[in-house]
Amino acid sequence: MSRTSALPPALPASPLSPRRLVATARSRAFDGYLAVWTGLFGLAIPVFWLLGSPKPAIRAATRVWVRGAFVGLRAIVGLRHVERGRENIPDGPCLVVANHQSTWETFAALVLFPGVAIIAKQELLQIPVFGWYLRRSGMIVIDRASGGKALREMIDQSRDTLAEGRPVLIFPEGTRRAPAEPVAFKRGTELLYTALAVPAVTMAVNSGLYWRSGAPKRAGAITVTYAEPIPPGLPAAEFAQRAVSLLEANKQG
After folding, report:
1. What is the pLDDT of residues 201-244, one digit of tens each?
2. What's the helix, strand, coil split of the chain in %, to 5?
3. Residue 122: half-sphere exposure toward Cβ, Cα within 13 Å
4. Res 127: pLDDT
5. Which of 5, 94, 190, 241 is the most exposed place for a label (fewest CB within 10 A)?
């Protein structure tokens, strides 16, 4: 099967078409479910606060939240995910380099890589409930406006995370991109790879085909593909070229 024929059929352009109406209704029903599910975890915040906000417990709670979201996605929308190349993930701490097409991979990574520290932008801390858990679960939150200082903090916090035996995940594109757009790294990923000196594994997703801003979520199967790890010690430019090539080759599943 060609890659083009494997893509899901486009939803009808007309907002009044029966298939689009059903997809929209299911998507909105899931949004309602997720809001209620997230609200339940908001009720747990005072309990965690009284316990001193233990990071392992908070990370465990976020994984429960993600699994509950997955249940809702599959039952309400008909959207699931499949993994390919799981055997390529290194046994020890590593740098995970992922393309970014939707919100899905941001929270899915919490289950796909238990204990992961996601390098996230500071603006995410403003999201109710999610921001509270993000701040206290050991993620690497940076202020991109601070330039070189943000890069140094990112490297220092990533080293501390790897020392704890946890993987670090970065979205090198810096923002969500449409499935048809080419993968393009922003400044910092190559420096992080060089500074950490650990294997890097690419995580390619095609989530934008099923979940994108401004459109109803769609039934189907998001594919997550892990390629063979890139060994440490390569020149920064060679690493970036190899990582981009692997993500580009696998991002459509």
Report:
1. 999 999 999 998 888 999 999 999 999 999 999 999 999 999 99
2. 50, 15, 35
3. 8
4. 82
5. 5
Find, among 220, 235, 209, the residue nearest to 77 by Cα: 220
DSSP state of 145: G
Give, in order, the Cα–Cα distances in Å from 151 to each of 36, 38, 118. 36, 31, 14
For the beta sheet containing 117-121, the strands, ordered from the edge strand earlier in sequence to the opposite edge, are 79-84, 220-226, 200-205, 95-98, 168-170, 117-121, 140-142
User: Is pLDDT at 124 greater than 90 in this prediction?
Assistant: no
- Give, for 225, the enclosing helix (H) or strand (E): strand 220-226
Q: What is the CATH number of the domain that holds 175?
A: 3.40.1130
The string of DSSP letters for 67-80 reads HHHHHHIIIII-EE
Q: Give the model's pLDDT for residue 38.
A: 94
Q: What is the residue range of 118's domain?
A: 13-250
d(CA 208, CA 129): 25
Residue 176: alpha-carbon gap to chain centroid? 10
Question: pTM here?
Answer: 0.90
φ, ψ of residue 252 to 5 degrees: the values are -95, 5
Number of domains in the chain: 1
Asked whether residue 114 is domain-assigned, the answer is yes
* Residue 36, CA atoms < 13 Å, CB-side half-sphere: 6
